Input
Amino acid sequence: MAINELRAIANFVKAAELGSLRQAAATQGITPQASSQLLVQLEAHLGVRLFHRTTRSLSLTEEGRQFLASAQPGLATLQHAVQGARRGREEMAGPLRIVAPRSILLEVIWPVLDAFCRRHPRVEPDVQLDDRIGNWVEDRVDVGFRSGYPPQGGVVARRLLALQLIVCAAPSYIARHGAPASIDALAAHTCSGFRHPSTGKPMPWEFKVGDDIVSHAIPAAFCTNDIEVETRAVLGGHAIGQLVGPTAAPLVRSGQLVPLLTQHVAEHLGLYVYYGSRTALPARARAFIDLAVEMVANNPAHALTPQELAASPGRKARPRRAKG
Output
C-alpha cells in the first residue's frame, strides 16, 4: 500500500472517531485543508462517498460505515507494528549481527565485544568471522569490520586505524639464520605466506619504498590461510612473516618478535567499521559502533611508534649466516 493511501485511511479513521475533520487534522499535526484533501483523494480512489458533510456536521455514509469497520482493525495492527519497530530500534536488547575478518578479531575486536557484553547483557551478539569480502545486505550485517581498503556498496564506513605491515622474526630464527639486510635479501630466507581468502593464492608482501608502496611476491616456505597459524609459525622461529600491527606490536614489545626492515613498514591499509545507515541504526548497533570508535580509533597499542621502529635491533640487520 502506498504511503499516501495509508495516510488518507488514517485521516479518515481519525475523522470518523472524532466526528470532525478539524479535530482529526489537529491530532495529526496537519491543516484542516490538508485533512479535507486527504479525504477527497481517498473517496476518489475508492469511488464512493464516505461522509455526509456540511460546514457544521460530519456523518458516515453506509459505505463509510462498512469501510470503517474493515479499516480500523488493520490500521490498529499497522500502528502497533510501527510502534514495536520503533521500540526495537531504541531498545538495548535483541540480536546484533557483527561481521569481522578472522585475522583482526582477537587483538582488536574482542576487547570491544567483551566490554560491550558487560555493559549491555541483553544484547545478543551474532559474530561471523570471515576474511573474504562478502555482501553486507545478503549477510544481514548490523555492524561490519574490514581490513585493507574501505568497503563499497552503499555502506557508511569509518577508518579506525592504519594497519602497519611489519616484517618480523623470532630471536631464535635470527640467531640461526641472521636477518635480511634488504627486501631482495628475503629471497634467501624462509618466509611465511598468507593465502588470499578468495583466490587461495599467497598474497604479496607490500613495502614502503620512498613515497611508493611496492608489492613483492615473496616465495613462501610456510603457507596458511589462518593468521593465528602464521603467527605461531613466526613465533616458533620457523619463518619470517609480514604481520599486521595489531598482531605484531604486542609481540615485539614483549620481546617475542623482532621487527625487520623497519624503514619499509607500509601503513597504506586501514581497519574500517561500516554499517548501512546513519539514521536508521538500532540503538544497540549505534552503541557498539561508538564503543568501537572509543576503544580502537588510533589506539597506540595496535601500532609501533616511529621511535620503537627506529630503535629496533632488526633495523641494522646483520648478514644471513650460511646454512649448514
Summary: Confidence is low (pLDDT under 50) at residues 317-324. The first strand starts at residue 51 and ends at 53. The chain is about 40% helix and 25% strand. Residues 234 and 240 are 6 Å apart (CA to CA).
